Amino acid sequence: MGIFRKLTIAVVVFAVVLGAGLFYLMQGSTAELSVDAVSGTEPTLAEPDAESFPTVQIAKPVGWEEGQVPEAADDLTVNRFAEGLDHPRVLYALPNGDVLVTLTRAPSAEGDDEGGIMATIRGWVAGYLFSEAGASGESANEIVLLRDEDGDGTAEIQQVIASEGLDSPSGMSWNDGTLYVANHNAVLAFDYALGSDAVSGEARKLMDLPGGGGHWMRNMELHPDGDLLYIAVGSVSNIGESGMEVEEGRAMIWEYTISSGSYRQFAAGLRNPNGLDFSPWSGELWTTVNERDMLGSDLVPDYLTNVPIGAQYGWPWIYYRFNFDRRVEAPMPRFLDSYVRNPEYALGPHVAALGLVFTAEGHRMGNSMASGAFIARHGSWNRKPPSGYDVVYVDFDERGNPQGSPLPVLTGFLNDDGTTRGRPTWVEWAGDGSLLVSDDTAGIIWRTMAPESAAGAGIERLTGAPLRPSGELVDPRAEFEADYLRQSGQE
Q1: Which residue from 80, 97, 133 is spatially nearest to 443, judged by alpha carbons?
Q2: What is the mean pLDDT, run by run of 10 residues, along the chain of 491 residues?
């Protein structure tokens, strides 16, 4: 046997063995818990199973057939509000009933050398995953206006109102003639009059943001008082493996004051915050967060939580208040474990929770969904079996606290053969009280509602009497004991 033939056989054998080894390593772990078991106010947190290679199970998009629609919960109907859109992500309803949607994908990675060789490797992996999941390609970088002129539940008008100056745009807000847009690397402001076919003038940059990164979406929410913008910025990495220097300004929510142009860190330790909305009960900001990967198919659940000023949720060192991630090499800040908060509500492992809206006045979702939050779960790429690929409702009690398990609103996105018709991305209220859902890989905006229901009254804001100022110095222990005795009838 010639030396060339022997060498060829050796190379083939080596390639087969290497391929088999990689195939075995990438099989990953199979979940032992249901998604519901890892959801709610008291999720079951399994023992971490650190992975050298991530579990990979990607649902390839195959699209919806003509006339096909998602499966809606009882008493709800669903129809196509708009279609033929190029990767629609964030939805935003204007006061006049028009709806805006950003057509966007990840920014170009050219010239992005943050993290060195690790960033390059992540880029290869991300490129493969994006391609398989239907998210690859150039970003359209457009904001499209959708208008239902005749009130039939379908947007007859699709009008591009902005494209210049946009670079992977995501979150939007509007107030007093100004449209605010969050690019992946900056917050912009455009002059825009309601009902117009386009923005006027050039974009004004209000604030730089850390650009690109593994999590590139930048959602935005305007405070009800109209002067504060909140911008969610995700991390570059999974657990800071490229060094914490590249995470500067990331994994947090920023607060920008429009009147002064000043900004500050509002909350931190949030690996990848996405949906933002203000609680109708308390007025407090809430967010959805995508947690870390490669600890097994049962960890770590994404979550929904309130975000008081100064909140810290522990990433990358801690998850769910008391759980330390021993894989993190970066030194943990002193006393961090003393003030890390526990998330309010788990949404399930690897579900990729994105869009969020609370029940709003005028909603048409029926009495069974009249007091809670609606969340788009984009779907997993690294869990066996897959999780998410749906829109769910989380019920809240009369005090504004989440309770129970997530309830299905729209399902049927994931096929039995492991492919997916689409991926629900964002949720927003339409002017007629229906719920709009963007489906990015299918290019569709879905509209769902309970047609027999009357417009809901919304949720009443909780109020209470302020504490009376004390007129004299008192011993707080004595005050407490006296109050206890009064209430127990022992005084």
Answers
A1: 80
A2: 59 46 61 98 97 94 97 98 98 98 89 50 58 80 98 98 98 98 98 98 97 96 98 98 97 98 98 98 98 98 98 98 97 97 98 98 97 98 97 98 98 97 98 98 98 95 72 62 62 52
Backbone angles phi, psi at 153, to 5 degrees: 90, 10
Chain centroid to CA 467 = 37
Q: How far apart are CA 356 and CA 115, in angstroms?
A: 31
Distance CA 273, CA 290 (A): 6
* Cα(110)–Cα(103) distance, integer angstroms: 21
- Please report whether residue 56 resides in a domain: no
Q: Is residue 61 in some structural domain?
A: no
Enumerate long-range contacts of 205-208, CB under 8 Å, 24 or more apart. 206/180, 206/256, 206/258, 206/261, 207/231, 207/254, 207/256, 207/261, 207/263
Is the CB of residue 483 less than 8 Å from the CB of residue 490? no
What amino acid is encoded at 62 in this protein? V
pLDDT value for 28 = 79
Could you tell me the CATH number of the domain that includes residue 96?
2.120.10.30
Check residue 51 and give its pLDDT.
96
58 assigned to some structural domain:
no
H helices of 27-81, in order, are none
Cα(81)–Cα(146) distance, rounded to whole angstroms?
A: 9
Quick count: other Cβ atoms within 10 Å of Cβ 193? 12
Find out whether 91 and 434 touch, Cβ atoms under 8 Å. Answer: no
Domain residues for the domain of 173 are 31-44+75-465
Record the pTM. Answer: 0.89
Can you read off the two tokens belonging to residue 231?
């911008």
Picking from 214, 205, 210, the residue whose alpha carbon sits closest to that of residue 253 is 210
Name the nearest CA neighbour of 57 among 290, 295, 300, 384: 384
Task: Check: CB of residue 260 under 8 Å from CB of residue 312.
Answer: no
- Examine residue 307 and state whether it is found in any structural domain, yes or no: yes
Q: Which long-range contacts (CB under 8 A, 24 or more apart) does 232-235 make?
A: 232/171, 232/270, 232/273, 232/274, 232/276, 232/287, 233/209, 233/273, 234/270, 234/271, 234/272, 234/273, 234/274, 234/290, 235/271, 235/272, 235/315, 235/316
Q: Is 433 left (phi over 0), alpha (psi -120 to 50) or beta?
A: left
Burial of 213 (0-12, 13-18, 19+ CB in 10 A): buried
In eight-state DSSP terms, residue 370 is S
If one counts the domains in the chain, the total is: 1
